């Protein structure tokens, strides 16, 4: 019965369209090929498509490219922020014969349940971008997330210094408290800001987590912050979506462009907000590198090999060291938006639409 409901749910997820993409390497599952080498089949579960544009526009694309290039069979699905669907997709992938499962968890608890299920079915696992605390993934592939936060903190300081702000009151819009990355980002930016608060150079204002990185919630939260603390003079927003939510509220008070706002992910929207002067910086994470590194490890695992990684992270909850690949993030301001284009992450056609054409030209983007 339970199984019936689960498969129905799975069909529901599959039927929503655009959520799934399977490799067309049919031979991979063809028992008649006569080959006795273990055939790789990799399952990937992305978290949602609203908390950041990256998952669908970058991660999916680059993972697909990497798997196609390697000629391995794959199945990439998006749980659309639904924890039950996440479990269903995982079960379906395990039953469907993946030998590696790569996940971006929606929280550590539900992520761990999926990893444990995979493990007991003999499926190797990778934590992609977000570490599952207390989990059992063989690898963790991500960016140095404390460094991401540090760039955000330093970026905000630079913008406030350039604006000659005195004793600015800082508001912090953190990511989801159940995302270990959000904790690491905060560790990074608070490391920079705390010294300023302690010295009295900056004033600590409202500081809140945004459940599930939800952009609408971020807008409501920031509106309340600005009502209770109208003199907010700088906003540490943990990603471009949260930053955009704050900018929309600042616009209502004609404070956009006056109050620097940070971001992360170098999304088209974030970069346009930067070109407009409404956002002070974003953090560019070269997702192609992340996807390539994860795909390489996954393919190795699928073939029963153990890949080489040079880093390790500590899972404080599971009290274990996890083999990791941690890439380096880069700070983006108006001065180097061009770097994101040059790297092929965003195209001129996507960024320089309408009024942005002139702004792109000024920023040396063509
Ligand atoms: C990712 C960010 C993303 C956020 C919301 C984090 O775990 O590292 O790139 O903006 O989740 O999806």
Summarize the structure.
The chain is α/β, with parallel strands linked by helices and 366 residues long.
Q: Can you describe what's shown?
A:
- This protein is an alpha/beta fold and 366 residues long.
- It has helices at residues 2-15, 54-70, 83-95, 108-120, 145-162, 180-199, 215-228, 240-252, 268-275, 287-302, 337-342, 348-351, 356-362, and strands at residues 20-22, 41-46, 73-78, 100-103, 124-128, 139-143, 169-174, 203-209, 232-237, 282-284, 311-315, 320-327, 330-332.
- The strands form 3 sheets. An 8-stranded mixed β-sheet has the order 1-3-2-4-5-6-12-11, sandwiched between helices. A 3-stranded parallel β-sheet has the order 8-7-9, sandwiched between helices.
- Strand 11 (311-315) and strand 12 (320-327) form a beta hairpin.
- The termini are far apart.
- 49% of the residues are buried.
- The model is unreliable at 1-21 and 24-36 (pLDDT under 50).
Distance linking N and C termini = 58 Å
Radius of gyration: 21 Å
What small molecules are bound in this structure?
A: beta-D-glucopyranose
The best one-word shape is globular
Helical content (DSSP H or I, runs of 4+) = 40-55%
Estimate what percentage of residues fall within beta strands. 15-25%
Give the low-pLDDT segments: 1-21, 24-36
Work out the helix count.
13
Summarize the main sheet: 8 strands, mixed
Extended strand count: 13
Strand arrangement within the widest β-sheet reads: 1-3-2-4-5-6-12-11
- Which structural class matches the secondary elements? alpha/beta
Mean pLDDT: 91
N to C succession of SSEs: HEEHEHEHEEHEHEHEHHEHEEEHHH
């Amino acid at each position: 019965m339970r199984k019936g409901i689960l498969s129905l749910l799975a069909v529901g997820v599959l039927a929503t369209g655009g959520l799934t993409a399977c490799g067309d390497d049919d031979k991979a599952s063809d028992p008649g090929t006569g080959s006795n080498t273990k055939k790789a089949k990799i399952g990937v579960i992305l978290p949602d498509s609203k908390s950041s544009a990256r998952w669908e526009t970058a991660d999916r694309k680059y993972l697909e490219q990497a798997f196609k290039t390697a000629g391995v069979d794959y199945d990439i699905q998006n749980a659309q922020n639904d924890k039950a669907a996440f479990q269903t997709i995982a079960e379906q992938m395990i039953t469907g014969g993946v030998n590696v499962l790569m996940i971006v968890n929606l929280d550590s608890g539900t992520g761990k349940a999926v990893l444990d299920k995979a493990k007991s079915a003999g499926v190797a696992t990778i934590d992609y971008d977000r570490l599952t605390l207390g989990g059992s993934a063989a690898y963790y592939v991500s960016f140095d997330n404390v460094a991401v936060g540090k760039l955000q903190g330093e970026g905000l300081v630079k913008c406030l210094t350039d604006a000659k702000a005195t004793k600015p009151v800082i508001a912090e819009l953190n990511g989801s408290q159940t995302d270990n990355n959000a904790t690491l980002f905060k560790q990074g930016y608070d490391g920079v800001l705390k010294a300023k608060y302690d010295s009295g150079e900056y004033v600590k204002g409202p500081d809140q987590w945004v459940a599930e990185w939800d952009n609408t919630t971020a807008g409501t939260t920031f509106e309340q912050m600005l009502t209770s603390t109208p003199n907010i003079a700088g906003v540490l927003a943990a990603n471009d979506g949260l930053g955009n939510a704050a900018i929309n509220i600042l616009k209502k008070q004609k404070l956009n462009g006056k109050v620097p706002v940070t971001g992360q992910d170098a999304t088209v929207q974030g970069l346009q907000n930067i070109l407009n002067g409404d956002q002070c910086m974003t953090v560019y994470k070269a997702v192609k590198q992340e996807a390539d590194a994860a795909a390489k490890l996954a393919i190795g695992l699928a073939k029963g090999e153990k890949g080489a990684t040079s880093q390790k992270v500590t899972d404080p909850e599971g009290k274990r060291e996890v083999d990791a690949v941690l890439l380096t993030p880069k700070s983006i301001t108006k001065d180097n938006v061009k770097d994101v284009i040059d790297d092929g992450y965003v195209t001129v056609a996507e960024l320089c639409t309408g009024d942005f054409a002139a702004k792109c030209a000024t920023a040396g983007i063509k």
